[in-house]
Write a structure and sequence with these properties.
single chain, about 220 residues, mainly alpha, 3 strands, about 5% strand
């Protein structure tokens, strides 16, 4: 018989898997999440799935409605503004802490920036977006806080929901990887003030593009 500890472990496993699927763009906004289907897919109890979905609600990735059940969250403009307010705090904090970063942490910055450019060259647009999110997660990781890293993991999955709203994701994703590379080069050169200025412009442009898309999608939605 499964213990409460077993059920908790199973629910956290399902939560992590679903969050990773959202992060990779495999579960777009509005996708229905049915506990019976997920229970069979992940070979866990329906109670474990329901608890995983409640955890994903707390992560800002899922909504629960009395009559409709669970679905991947559809973002509002208020959600986007909140996400970007958090991004500014976390990513600027990483840049400011970069003087204390290890060589391995800085190497992650370099690798992530290059990965985005390679994925774009292969026209793998979902993977390009994932690589860009991983780059910004590496920037946040320069602060050296596992708690902050864990929080940003949920935030990055929310960002993927924002990307999915874009009417042309290929065109949208192609814009950012060169700018990621610029930020990476500034950080690796120890030019923190310039990296912060570049990131400030980057986030402003990205937020504006996504807000416009969210508003457009809301108008088009029946």
């Amino acid at each position: 018989m499964a213990t409460s500890a077993d059920n908790e472990s199973a629910s956290r496993m399902v939560r992590t898997r679903l969050r990773d699927q959202i992060l990779r763009g495999e579960l777009p906004p509005g996708t229905r999440l049915r506990d019976r289907v997920l229970s069979a897919e992940h070979e866990v109890s329906r109670n474990s799935v329901r608890e995983a979905l409640r955890l994903l609600v707390s992560d800002g990735l899922v909504t629960l409605t009395v009559n409709s059940g669970a679905a991947v969250r559809v973002l509002t403009t208020e959600d986007v503004a909140d996400i970007y307010a958090a991004r500014r705090l976390l990513e600027f904090g990483g840049i400011r802490a970069s003087s204390r970063a290890s060589d391995a942490e800085l190497a992650e910055i370099d690798v992530a920036a290059d990965t985005g450019i390679r994925q774009r060259a292969q026209k793998r647009w979902q993977q390009t977006g994932t690589a860009s999110l991983e780059f910004h997660a590496a920037v946040v990781a320069l602060a050296g806080s596992e708690r902050v890293n864990h929080f940003f993991a949920a935030l990055a999955a929310q960002l993927r929901l924002a990307f999915a709203i874009m009417p042309d994701e290929a065109e949208f994703q192609a814009l950012w990887v060169d700018r990621d590379r610029v930020i990476a080069d500034l950080l690796l050169a120890g030019r923190r003030d310039a990296a912060e200025a570049e990131l400030m412009a980057y986030l402003a442009d990205s937020e504006a593009a996504i807000v416009d898309a969210v508003r457009g999608a809301a108008i088009a939605r029946p």
